[in-house]
Design a protein that fits this description.
320 residues, mainly alpha, 18 helices, 71% helix, PPR_rpt, repeat, TPR-like_helical_dom_sf
Length: 320
């Protein structure tokens, strides 16, 4: 009888068994493929990783953010993974694998290695584009706007032209820091390159205006969004509400919400609710009462955090 403890001394036998299991299973979902790829990667069976990466595309399953979870912070499996990806036939399977690997490395905060993979993609001419850089820009922009700008510069060097999402990551980072001069330069570049603004572009610009207490500029941008038919994000309105309240313009904050009310019930619920909670926390009870009454008249539910705030408030407003 085979001693199970003794069997662990024969890794080649175990590897062959694992390889056999990979080759005989028929994955039916992207999640199933991810599980098999990660099991193969952890066991060191990169021939199975290669086969699975190829077959998943033939079967119509895209890679996901979990495809390369076998790569951990120590990057022990990175070099073999890169060699495996280089051996893939040029096409969607290869590009998709590289893009997923970049996403994994970005999430692990290994920006330098993610950029290295991007350069490999460019050198191999396997379809690198702005989307390949989105995960890098996403994580880098949260930490350092100037470093994110450096990623944009690298994209240009390898002839990958930033799209609106690429610009938005960096623009938001600058606006969060209140660096409007840098933000304006970036917007000028977008205009020169014919990049059309979207909701997140305007959201970043409104945030930047509010950060430097130019809420009037934020209002102008909101008006431009309406004129151009660009839908506003919830956060775009919240930036203005919060800044008006910080500046002590309580009545103007109420007026702002009322002016934009009636277009989108979900937006109304968010804006009225945030405004009422903030007014209660600021002990502006008369203004809060006005907002709550307006919510009732519009059939907006007073629930969740707002309901908790009302209960704490000793004004005994009730729900009639």
């Amino acid at each position: 009888m085979l001693n199970p403890h003794k069997a662990l001394k024969f890794p080649s036998l175990l590897r062959r068994a694992l390889s056999l299991s990979f080759s005989t299973q028929t994955p039916t979902t992207a999640h199933h493929y991810d599980d098999l790829i990660n099991a193969a990667g952890r066991s060191g069976d990169f021939s199975a990783v290669r086969r699975l990466l190829t077959n998943r595309w033939r079967d119509g399953f895209f890679n996901t953010k979990f495809t390369f979870n076998f790569i951990t912070s120590d990057l022990a499996a990175l070099e073999e993974t890169l060699q495996t990806l280089k051996s893939l036939a040029r096409g969607f399977a290869k590009k998709g694998a590289y893009d997923s690997l970049i996403a994994r490395l970005s999430k692990l905060d290994h920006t330098r290695h993610a950029l290295r993979v991007a350069k490999i993609m460019a050198a191999e001419n396997v379809g690198i584009n702005a989307v390949s850089f989105h995960p890098i820009l996403n994580y880098v922009s949260r930490k350092n706007a100037d470093e994110a700008m450096g990623v944009l510069e690298m994209m240009r060097e390898i002839k990958v032209w930033p799209d609106v999402t690429s610009y938005n990551y960096v623009l938001t980072a600058y606006c969060c820091d209140g660096k409007l001069e840098e933000a304006v330069k970036l917007v000028d570049e977008m205009d020169e390159n014919g990049v059309v603004y979207d909701s997140r572009t305007y959201d970043a610009l409104v945030l930047g205006a509010c950060k430097v207490k130019r809420v009037d500029g934020g209002l102008v941008l909101l008006r431009r969004m309406v004129d151009e038919g660009v839908p506003a994000l919830y956060s775009t309105h919240i930036h203005v509400i919060n800044e008006l309240l910080k500046m002590g313009y309580y009545g103007q904050a109420v007026e702002f919400v009322l002016i934009y009310a009636g277009r989108d019930k979900a937006m109304d619920h968010e804006c009225f609710g945030v405004l009422a909670r903030r007014l209660i926390s600021l002990k502006r009870f008369d203004d809060a009462k006005l907002v709550l009454e307006e919510m009732r008249s519009r059939g907006l539910e007073i629930g969740g955090k707002l309901s908790e705030a009302v209960e704490i408030w000793d004004g005994n407003l009730g729900t009639n």
